[in-house]
Amino acid sequence: MRMGEKKPYLPVFVGSTFADLQLYRRAVQDALTQLETIVRGMEHFGSKPGRPMDECLRIVESCKVYIGIFGMRYGSIPDDSDRSMTHLEYDEAQRLELPSLIYIIDEENQPILPKHVETGAGAEKLRTLKEQMKKRHVTSFFTTPEDIRARILHDMPELLKEIGAEVSGDLALSEATSDPEILRQFELLPKMFAGRQVAIEFINDGDFRSAYAEECRALGLEVGASVFAVVTLGTGSRLRIFGERDMALALCTLPKNARVYTMAITAFGAYNRVDWTDDGPMITPEVETGLIVKEIVRIEPKDERLA
Question: Is CATH 3.55.50 correct for 179-306?
Answer without folding.
Answer: no
